[in-house]
Amino acid sequence: MSEFLEKQRTGCAFGAFYTALAIDNVLPYAHSGPGCIQQAKLIMGYKNGGQGPSKYAEPIIPCSNFTEKDVVFGGIEKLKTGIKHSLDNFDADMLVVLSGCSSEIVADNVDEAVDEFSDAKIPVIGVETAGFKGNNIYGHEQILKAIIGKYVKPTNTINPKQVNVWGIVPFYDPFWDGTYNAIEDTLKAIGLEPNIIYGEGRGLKNVDKIPSAAFNLVLSPWWDVEIAKLLESKFGTPYFQYPNLPIGPSETTKFLRALTDYAKLDKELVEAYIEKGEKEYFYYFNRALNWVYDANIAPKRFIPIANSNYALAISKHLVNDLGFISDTVYITDGVKEEYQDVIREEFEKVESDIKPEVIFTKDGGLPQVEISEKRRQNPLRQPPYILGTFWDEPWAKELNSPFLSVSMPLGEKIVLNKHYFGYKGALTFFEDFFSAFNG
Amino acid sequence: MSININLPECESRENRLGSITGYTGTLKDLTERGCSGCLKNRDRCLNTSGQCAHFDAIDQLSVIDDAVVIDHAPAGCSTGHIMWNSFYRKISPMVGRKPKNVIVISSNMNESDTVFGATEKLKETIRFAYKRHNPKVIFITGSCTSGIIAEDIPSVVDEMKEELNIPISYSSCEGIRSKMWSSGFDAAQHAVVKALVKPPKEKRNTVNFIVFWPTIEAFLVPTLDAIGLKPLFLSGFANVEDHAHASESVATVGQCGVLTSYYGGALQEMYGVPFLQEHFPYGVDGFESWYRDLAKLVGKEAEAEAFIEAERAKYLPKLNEIRAKLKGKKAMIALGPGMAFEVVKILRDLGMEVVHTVGFHYDPKYDNNDGKLSPIVTYARESEDLDVTIADSQQHEVYKLLKKYKPDALFSRAHGSNLWAAKLGVVSIEYAGATHSLYSYAGLVEIGLRIIDELENRNFVKLINKKFVSPFAKSFEESPTFAYFEEERR
């Protein structure tokens, strides 16, 4: 398979500065060229649901602005000066110093520079995120590993109700903020004390609590699995993984029951929550049925071109709940090889005899080429529903496919706290999915 | 230094034009020091992130019809082109096209490529792109990484041109080469001129218009028609043929000096196409001078005067009403220098007081080496002085300047200045959309009415300001505006 990247659907490792920004009052410092923040901002923030940080808007993130001179002489002194002035001039709880390609090629050692600030008034953490090392999910892991490895201290107490929630990569998943909030509400309702590090008002106080959790919850096929493993080895915290974000009544109920078994939750409480959630879901579902059957021109088949978590979550929901047929799936988040078989197996579990062809590719141009070719060969078949990204809208419309953007880069439909998680999120998904027929 | 299109790379603005990104003082001082060659740059010990030349080069190249851009870089270096792609798609219907994506392909350099080199991979990427997209021209953009490991891209270009028999051109737009992202315009135009512009066969009645997008026909077509000329847009949606004929036009003009300098300079030096650089068509004087210069080239001075008279009659009464309403309102500007000082003219024409202007860099001269002055220098000599800062999108400085000058409105575009104005409760005007409705009298009226509306309802910025939490420490808020400037150096 080619390595060339067209219509990119991930940022580079450096783009993971957004993971730092998602933690309240954590400021990234970019030991990089002048354009690295902006390149990531445009695809992971701006054109990914109109997202931006609440406090440190990208253009004020401090940066070494690497030049040719720094390549020749090294940028370490400049970095130290930059860190010093960032500490003096910004109001922050932590500084996360990220290296970029230029500084890593000339072997600037970020950790060495950071070491000089071990007595600073706030923690300063170094992390290597050169773009040539991997994509933004790799970078996200590096940042979490650095924070956990270099900052988080054992608490020596376990709160039997506390669960740390992982598996949604902030900013990369444009729905992260609302999703984490919704997961928090759900877990609270079934008797747990969720601990989430991202989003409004959480910040380092929640990072500090990480070792106190009874277990870590990972809601994804592979994102953050290594983080859960790290926490297991470092603090002895076990983890429970559900292979995708649960969307819709079938998956949400299944997830809640599996979690109940794992965490020995109060069954009555959970069943009451399930009943309430399903009842509400079907109330609205029924209100829309007239429209669905009077105006339904939906094709039966659909094709996701999305990150692994949403491709799986949406496919399960569309097949198991809404009765669609999964034709082909393009998975675009650069899934590591060791996780690919597990993901294929999950797609085999959709409740339909027709299983999708699962294609892992980084080549964002491939789906257009292949789907357009199939269309050319079968011009009289109804075109499939395409669930993709901003890149896919023009050609999907050209093929007369209904289209919904669900994965990075989401495009220009603004996302603040909208989400597709659970029962309520599935109603939002329903609205978006069927609204696509109206342009 | 004159333009040498035969070289593989174009020099950065720093080296070519003596451009700078760090200065604070006044317009007259800045321009006089620039002219006498004693303008020195000042670095900062606290920098915020900006934009790189690489970004602008990819954007400009990607929107040429039937072009493919291959970014010889790690994955992230071309991801930002999604923004320009988004403009391209939005503007497509305005120019009668179906929206589609531009094609940019990253060679995706990985860690071992940084050690062993990746020219073979680059060749493979070129072959792949050619097969999948059948482009009429391929542009290769160099990155920080390809630059640092000294990839021999020009040799790959020569080899692949022979193999594929289409124009292939290298744009050296490594982000570390220049502190000015506008060096990316030059790098793109260097590659375009080299690959696409042909020597003239016949003279045409066209005027090269170098602009981001050809969405200004409503202004430009009648204006040029009155003096017997037609626009040739060398912009997004221009095709290989349009660029081939650029040498046959009667003149080159453009949206601003920064964007037009390299292409205009190259056409003048190589093919004698005059580059009208002293005036751009903004504000009353700017438009009239620009138009008269253009008309003179084709001997249509009388027609130009008649057109100007008619425009004045049509717009001046409305303009005077606007001036009465805006008199004494204070404005601050934060823009690339090509537009920043044009907007000074516009706002002063509208009766506003410009209290401070931030240019994102400053070019003491343009590229055509014929002794003509840039519009900024011309203006500085003729008009009232002005407080000026030159800063490469250093938004912490803009923030402090806003606090110091307390303007009624900030005029800016992209780069994030607007946000800080709004957070400080200052009306923030994104001066124009992609359509740039600022030209001539009509543009003055349009922006004037917009400013009146913006000042009329300030509820949004008032609300933002009410709940504003500064990202800065108290020590920053209390320090002098330019506490982070280092000594002058060159």
Describe this structure as you would to a colleague.
The complex is a heterodimer of chains A (439) and B (490). By secondary structure, chain A is an alpha/beta fold. Chain A has helices at residues 17-22, 36-46, 68-73, 76-89, 101-105, 110-115, 136-150, 176-189, 203-208, 225-235, 248-263, 267-295, 308-321, 337-348, 366-377, 393-398, 422-435; strands spanning 5-6, 26-31, 94-99, 124-128, 159-166, 193-195, 213-219, 239-242, 301-306, 325-326, 328-331, 357-360, 385-388, 403-405. In chain A, helix 11 (248-263) packs antiparallel against helix 12 and helix 11 runs antiparallel to helix 17. The longest helix of chain A is centred in the middle third of the chain and has 29 residues, at 267-295. The relative contact order of chain A is 0.13. By secondary structure, chain B is of the alpha/beta class. Chain B folds into two domains: 20-50 and 197-490, Nitrogenase MoFe cofactor biosynthesis protein NifE, C-terminal (Rossmann fold); 53-180, Nitrogenase molybdenum iron protein domain (Rossmann fold, 3-Layer(aba) Sandwich), CATH 3.40.50.1980. Helix content of chain B is 46%, strand content 15%. Chain B contains 21 helices and 15 strands. Chain B is globular and about 65 Å long. The mean pLDDT of chain B is 94.
Give short descriptive properties of this protein:
heterodimer; A: about 450 residues; alpha/beta; Rossmann fold; 3 domains; six-stranded parallel beta sheet; about 45% helix; B: about 500 residues; four-stranded parallel beta sheet
CATH class of the largest domain in chain B: Alpha Beta
What is the name of the CATH architecture of the largest domain in chain A? 3-Layer(aba) Sandwich
Radius of gyration of chain A: 22 Å
Q: Helical percent range of chain B?
A: 40-55%
Distance between the termini of chain B: 17 Å
How much of the residues of chain A is beta strand, in percent?
5-15%
What share of residues of chain A is helical? 40-55%
